[in-house]
Specification:
The protein is of the alpha/beta class. The protein has a single domain, classed as Phosphoenolpyruvate-binding domains (TIM Barrel). About 45% of the residues lie in helices and about 15% in strands. It is built from twelve helices and eight strands. It has an eight-stranded parallel beta sheet. Helix 11 links the parallel strand 7 and strand 8. It is globular, with a radius of gyration of 18 Å.
Length: about 260
Amino acid sequence: MNLAKNPFTHAIAKGDKQIGLWISLANNTAAEVVAGAGYDWVVVDMEHTTADYNDVLGQLQAFANSGTTAIVRPEWNDPVTVKRLLDLGAQGLVIPMIQSVEEAEKAVASTRYPPHGVRGVSGATRATKYGRIKDYTAAIEAETTVILQLETAHAIAQAEAIGAVKGVSGIFFGPADIAADIGHLGDPMHEDVWALIRPAAQKLIAMGVPVGTLVMDPLFAAKLLNEGFTFVAGGTDAALLARASDAALATIKSNLT
């Protein structure tokens, strides 16, 4: 048995627009509901959720038979966490709060076996279908999506250098934390935030580096994709549930007599 291709890795490398969603409910049933929607990619979040490794496993299993590529955001740029998530079968990672070229190199090294990195070797894991994928160690580097998240003005100033690090699949801009960093906490759509993000994104795009982000407005997500962003998530599962439940209640109340 050979390792399957990761469609998301190859799609963003070609510049194909990829529509995504953030998975934050830390629940395999909720993930299964989303899996039937047909998103190109999702991020199973550990940084700002209650998800532990077993929760991540259940969510990856929910997406396994769908056409959606499930990647994971760990809590931090930590080689041990990265190793465990890759052994669980995560098809890619979004590494948060990258601040320098050195941190970018550390993140990439965490996903690579020696001599190109520091990932520990384990044979019978979910990632290898418990030892059945014979070319795993040879093929996995080309299939794993490694996305680095820039979340401060300091990081954005180094975006081109970080994006040029070998092994980086794409750069992700985190507007909420960028907003906080520049004095607009709670306002990720502030014009100053996007005045930072957009020029940096266009420089990366000109370099051939795929860029992406998460926004809560699907129309704005489409606009960014039309501007040259390659992978954009247009919301979170929790926010969609909250909005839909609020709207349903409001509709009933407004029609009471």
